[in-house]
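Re: beginner question about structure tokens

> Can someone show what the tokenized structure looks like for a real chain? I only ever see the sequence side.

Sure, here's an example I had lying around. Input first:
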Amino acid sequence: MSQLLVRVQQHLQLFAASRHLTTSSRACAEASKAEKPFRSVRAFVRSAKQETPEPIETSISGEVPKWIDGSLYRNGPGLFEVGNDKYNHLFDGLSLLHRFNIKNGQVTYQNRFLRSDHYTKNMKANRIVCGEFGTVGHPDPCHNLFQRVLSRFKTRKASDNCNVNVMSIKDEIYAMTETSYMWRIDPKTLESVEKLDISEFLAVNMATAHPHYTNDGTHYNMGSSFGKVTKYNIIKIDAADAGQPLLQKSSILCSIPARGRDPSYYHSFGMTDNYFVYVEQPLHINVMKVLKATLLGSSFTDIMEYRPQNKARFHVVNSRTGELYSIEYTADAFFCFHHINAYEDDGHIVVDLCTHKDEGVIHKGSVEEMTKDEYVPAQGSKVMRYVLPLTVDKKAGIHNLVKLPNTECSARLGEDGSVFCIPERISDAVIELPQINYASYNGKPYQYSYGINVYSSEINKIDFKNKSYKAWGMDDYIASEPVFVAAPSSGSEDDGVVLTALVSDDPSKKPHLLAILDARDLKEIGLAKINVDMTNSFHGMFIRNA
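And the corresponding structure tokens:
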């Protein structure tokens, strides 16, 4: 049995893996939109035919504010074919890094493929030999049948195709994914410099691509440890000492035991001034299917199971002591990729999430689905607020434990002592890839968030105070995650711009774009036109020039 556990642990590491639309508030006809084809959806899985490693000038229409001085870095899948082979899922494409450098009212653009081990091996073989989230790599063609079967039981390394996000620590840029690997990237040339493996420093098999950071340069992340008891770990990375290797001073602040044999999948977590919030959701990695999937050559998607009969659980950790809060918070089942923000308010923790009713959004990300003529997306992600009362009156009975004004959220004490939370839907917007004014408002009370409407590829601005939203978009374009950049001496939360890269549905007729929008009303300020190959991307960040 111990050998089986070791084998499961080894293979879990492998598997971790209309021109301008109105900007007025409006309701979303959710049911009717869900039945319509998703505009320009093929652009999500388009491959770049060639790189643009040297910065090229873009042509500007409108104006690029001269106070914007820095680079927007973005990361995402940029190659879905290798030789005659094709990747099966949106999450699988080989990483393409993008840089938009903005200075003196001008914009340059460049991109470069991440030279991961997976990229290098695939290019050498001219086929997909390294598996990803939804794609199984080809076995070595020189092996006979027995050798191929035997090779399934050998320990294989998790993917280093870091195609999800970018992170900045000190003056360095890192490409990230959901395994234990990250790649250091040259911030000017986008060249792949060095691969790092956090599992060499900590007992962690995988980590998220959505770390949090504080003003003193400390970074926090979450990673899972697989074994007899799976643990979800809060990871602290101290970047204060410039002479130390990046992960040399990393440590595990807290470990949260999984509630069952099969670990929960997660993509992000929340952080307030004093607490971390981790949501253990009912999308599980079925441990017993791991070895079978490895033997039969199945992908990560084949071992994931959504169990709606299980409740979602909110775990709260003291960020200073690492102590796990004793109260167990639960809610009806949901699936979530992205936390929007979390903050403390008068003895409560407010947690805002983009939630889905189930894991259907993952299956709708298959390339086969996304290239259909009539693509219908999964039910959209709703902006939901949960309120966790930090103090619980054991005599409260059925009474609402939430004492905050201006919220429809509630929480009630269960017979087992747990607190059951009922959320409030903040607006009719259906968004994903949320961003906020992170530097000033992450972990603090805030009013605004920006995201992409999953049905129309519009940019939406959510007003959490007035529970409304505004929208902007362009026909025949897919918008990327909106990134907020604060204006100098910003006087309000939304005083600044929103940057979004727009991928053209037909680049032969319309160029790709970088749009600069006024963050207050989403009015277009300027467009940078890009006449070279550019693909969609998942996440990114803006870094000011030194």
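Each token stands for a local structural state, so reading them left to right follows the chain. The mean pLDDT is 87.
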